[in-house]
Amino acid sequence: MTAGERWAVGAWLAFLAAGVWIVAHTTFTTDVSAFLPRSPTPEQQVLVEQLREGVVSRLVLVALEGTPPASLAQASKSMAAELRQDASFVSVENGDGSGAGADRDFLWRHRYLLSPAVSPERFSAAGLRERLEETLRLLDSPAGTLVRRVAPSDPTGELLQILEHLETQSRPATREGVWFSRDGRRALLLAQTRAPGYDVGAQEHAIARIQEAFSRADAGEAKLLLSGPGVFAARTRVAVRDDALRLSLIATALVAGLLFAVYRSGRLLALGLLPIASGALAGIAAVSLGFGSVHGITLGFGVTLIGEGVDYAIYLFTQAAGEGGPAALERIWPTLRLGVLTSICGFSAMLFSGFTGLAQLGLFSIVGLLVAVAVTRWVLPGMLPPTLDAPIVGTAGPWASAAARRAPSLRYPLLVLVAVVAVLLVTRGKHLWSEDLASLSPVPRADQALDEKMRGELGAPDVRFLIVIHAPEREAALQASEAIADGLREASQAGMLEGYESPADYLPSQKTQEARRQALPEPAQLRANLEKAVAGLPFRAKVFEPFLADAAAARSMPPVVRGDMQGTHLALRVDSLIARRAGGWAAMLPLRNVADAAGVARHLAAPPGAQAVLLDLKRESEELYHSYRAQALAYSLLGAAAIGALLIASLRSLRSVFAVLAPLVAAVLVTTGVLALAGASLSIFHLVGLLLVVAIGSNYSLLFDRRASSRSDRERTLVSLLLANATTVIGFGLLSFSRVPVLHDIGITVGLGTVLALVFSAILGRRHEHA
Amino acid sequence: MTFGGRARAVLLAAALAHGVAAAAEGAAEESAWNVARLMQELAKVKTSKGRFVERRYVGILTTPLESSGTLLYVAPDRLEKRTLSPRVESVLLEGEQLTLESGQPKRRRSIRLEDYPAVGVFVESIRSTLAGDLAALKRLFEIALEGDERKWRMVLKPTDRNMQELLSEIRVGGSRGTIHSIEFIEPNGDRSTMTITRDTP
Known about the structure:
The complex is a heterodimer of chains A (771) and B (201). With 771 residues, chain A is α+β, with helices and mostly antiparallel strands. Among the domains of chain A are: 3-28 and 233-432 and 653-764, Multidrug efflux transporter AcrB transmembrane domain (Multidrug efflux transporter AcrB transmembrane fold, Up-down Bundle); 57-232, no CATH class. Chain A is 65% helix and 8% strand. In chain A, strands 9, 10, 11, 12 and 13 form a five-stranded antiparallel β-sheet that branches. In chain A, strands 3-6-2-7 form a four-stranded antiparallel β-sheet, with helices on both faces. The longest helix of chain A has 35 residues, at 229-263. The two termini of chain A are 37 Å apart. By secondary structure, chain B is of the alpha+beta class. Chain B has a single domain, classed as outer membrane lipoprotein receptor (LolB), chain A, CATH 2.50.20. In chain B, helix 1 packs parallel to helix 3 (117-131) and helix 3 (117-131) runs antiparallel to helix 4 (134-140). The chains are: A alpha+beta (771), B alpha+beta (201). At the A-B interface, helix 4, helix 6, helix 7, helix 8 and strand 4 of A face helix 1 of B.
């Protein structure tokens, strides 16, 4: 070992130690939203916050199926009873009517503060007369028995007013006393966890508790289905953890097996894995330093680094087998360096994308590759055995060389193929691309479909339009909600929408409650008004004494606050519609059946100090997706342009650049065509994969295009390219088996694309004949 | 809001039960008069039409409330009660769907029986009576029959605890396969009496 080499090894060891220390102190996350685009507008931010920690994120959808309804209902009741005792859950609903009593008591007790109909006119003699006549009519209607029960205390019908206002929510079907899907095949429960959806550990615990309750419910052959954001988070974490571990182990084993088969040396095998190990360590450390935490999916992506990082060692070993380490390195280093730089150009596009997750993958790969190539360049040569043998070059070399010589005869068939694919892609046009934001979700597609189905069965309406209100205080947000609701009622009368839900329906602002209290006349006055109103009607004397007492009590009742709702289902609704957020409070008003969104928007007038925005969730998410795809496309093109510029600057010959780029363009087109024909609609992740095809494939075409010094040099180059491609395919190909969409999409694209890049490089490569 | 919806739906069904009545005569049989025979008579009626007068005695009122209108039954599961006085209103049962419509202001509301098990039980009992399905009636009520073929009275007492809170008993009176009156008695003493006149076919 020379002094320089010793210095390099020392620096490398110090670097490794630092890397180990950083990685040991790294937080690993599996936040599901990391692979959703960062949200640019405040409204979208509210949505993403709600998705991460709002009530919506805390819901676990539970379904039981596979046995007759009676036994499913029994299991549902027993699970609900057990889980309601569990501190992990704020509420567990299964439609058995538990809690309905608490809801009714709350509404009954506070009816004069909660009823939207309360006004001074309603309690005047004329107003009361009108209400009493209505009560008389209702007594002779199907609702008679209920009205007869409440009339003495509530002759003005405030409870009915409230119920009618709230009852527009759709609910699941009921069978055997609990919630069921319409077809009666699934019993349904809805649990709300105490922990927010992003707290994956707590979500895992809650899920385990549900599974235990299910196993204790003695449900026989019944099957338990779970869905919801927390379930997804927990499941994704498991999937990512399993995939990362499993795929890394398989990839390492395969690559190691390949290295050993080729070099027949334990020492070379160990040396070959050094650049990868160092690169992976450095990559994780860099992401940890740059982002504060490392996403599980980034680790999963590390698999690809195993496949790519080992390439440099393969080039070195195979070349060194002919002429010794240092000389070989001298010769291939310029090409290798250019290859690494083009790869980095490609990965840079990921670094600048709007997805935290992709940016992490980009940084991880760039740092990993730099370190891997640096270790190959400066550390490995000093450690190589003086004599090094690669018997495979002798066996495979002539064959590879012969194949490469014959490959150009396929030039014209390839051109035809590329032309056909290009036409195909053009005719596909817009349909080529996925239009769905869900395609970016790390949640497997089958799980997304199940979630949608269960939501439909639970009668959770698909909210498309939503008004988001910001205000500094809860009271201001509630007042703004009430002001907005006035406008919405007008819009509704004009036929622009069917209805809305507002947090103030359940929890009116203090101001409104105070106004309602003031609307109730003094006890003596009310009694006089009532006496006048009841004259001539067939009500028995003294029947309405309870009403006079309740109305008098309501006048001195403290206003309802959120705490009064504890233990009712209404609390859950309020919490899902109004929430504290950075810089104040956000209230959300979901709208039903909007016919004229522009008209509704014109009716929005938030009071001073509050802002209100009408969100079209469907359009918003589509626009978000389009803007991110456009961004990803722009960065990919920029990355491709950087690669082109780099090649022009290094090769200084347009002809050479063309020779290097032509196979890559062909590989990208054909890969896209194959994916499209296979029925995949392409996501942003496929797009990123295509860029990586260019970034990685350029190494192959560069080496292919390198003028070899001798026939044996040429054969060694070809064999090393085959080996390098094999390891890349191992890395990315394995990713295509992942259940996590981002890993699967990138894996399948790069795995296929790099093979094509190598084959097309051979077909389109220039002939460098040697004697 | 389970409370309001369910309670009102139950009452809706109760109101519908008043419409059970209009049933036509069947040919008299010679065998002994008992519930099984009554059911046979009722089962023979495939369609019938009639007018009703209903009086509701409510504890908080000094005078009963009176309403009247028409009834229409088509076997096996279509039943319509149309109130014409003092206001236009109708309750319609079609298979599993119960629809309530009021004239002024015009409002319409439909529920599916499977969503309201209590109503489902109720309606099932009405249907069972009209269809002469004794087995189904016995699942829900304790049945007693008084009188003879020409003038009988059947008393139905709900066996389900939840139903008992809404209803003490139903008294159905008639002659052979024709129902003349139905009386609902609530636990709090309120009751309603419906007398039915069958239209001559």
